[in-house]
Amino acid sequence: MGIVMRQYNEFYIKLQKEFKSAHNLVVETMPAKFSKKDYVKKFNPVVK
């Protein structure tokens, strides 16, 4: 089980790093007055 757990952790950490840079790029391109509520409305269509 240790080998599988290490592989999973390695994959998860790599995924987090990739997502974080993409997420930060999106956040940097948003207008200064773009609020958290606006962010949720824009990127989560389920929220009304």
Structural notes for this entry:
With 48 residues, the chain is an all-alpha fold. It has helices at 2-29, 36-43. The mean pLDDT is 81.
What's the arrangement of secondary structure elements?
Blueprint: H1 2-29, H2 36-43
Salient structural properties:
single chain, 75% helix, 48 residues
Short description:
The chain has 48 residues and is an all-alpha fold. The chain has helices at residues 2-29, 36-43.
Largest sheet: none
- Return residue spans where pLDDT drops below 50 for at least 5 consecutive residues: none
| Strand count | 0
| Beta-strand content bin | under 5%
Question: Roughly what is the average pLDDT, rounded to an integer?
Answer: 81
Topology as H/E string?
A: HH
Form type: elongated
Structural class: mainly alpha
- Residue share in helix: over 70%
